[in-house]
Amino acid sequence: MANGYHGAAMDEIAETAHVSKPVLYQHFPSKRELYLALLESHLASLTDLMLGALNSTTDNDERVQAVMRAYFQFIANDDQAHRLVFESDLVNDPDVSARLETFNRTFADAIARVIAEDTKLPHLEAQLLGRGLAGMAQVSARYWLETDGNLDLDVASDLIYRLAWRGISRFPKES
Predict the structure, then answer these.
(1) Rounded to an integer, what distance in angstroms lies between the CA atom of residue 88 and that of residue 113?
(2) 113: closest CA among 36, 164, 58, 71?
(3) Domain span holding position 35
């Protein structure tokens, strides 16, 4: 589905997957069902990656660095997966937007829990900061992908980590 949902034909998809079209239809009654299954799979992988990075340490500086690096790494490993998830021509489809919102909420809420625990900010304020940090990772990593390798992954993720850390570290930890 490199050409987008509407640009992909089931014949092409079957050929790329090295299966016959009838086999493809046995598992996925429609192109939309196939897309939703791929979306679910990629979002589950990305969720696991993000939560793994977030929970990899209790040091918040290292935590922010790990999350930013993991996001950039996800895109570097499979930019087609990222495009399928975040650049779909189906983002207004209710099932697609619901799945994307579930991912965004899960990731941002996990960040917000850490912020709320550490800073004692009210839940709603911590959620806003969580969404902001998650959005920073997503938007900057998407831009980095457009640089076609002209900006090193480590340099890019480090720049965004430092920007995020300098901002979030201004909310001091409270015991």
Answers:
(1) 29
(2) 58
(3) 30-168
Q: What is the CATH number of the domain that holds 54?
A: 1.10.357.10
Q: What is the pLDDT of residues 37-91, one digit of tens each?
A: 888 988 999 999 999 999 999 999 999 999 999 999 998 887 677 777 777 777 7
Q: In angstroms, what CA-CA distances link 44 with 51, 52, 102, 128, 169?
A: 10, 12, 10, 23, 29
Query: What pTM value is reported for the model?
Result: 0.80
Total domain count, the chain: 1
pLDDT, tens digit, 9 for 90 and up, residues 121-163: 999 999 999 999 999 999 999 899 888 889 999 999 999 999 9
Contact 144, 75 (CB under 8 A): yes
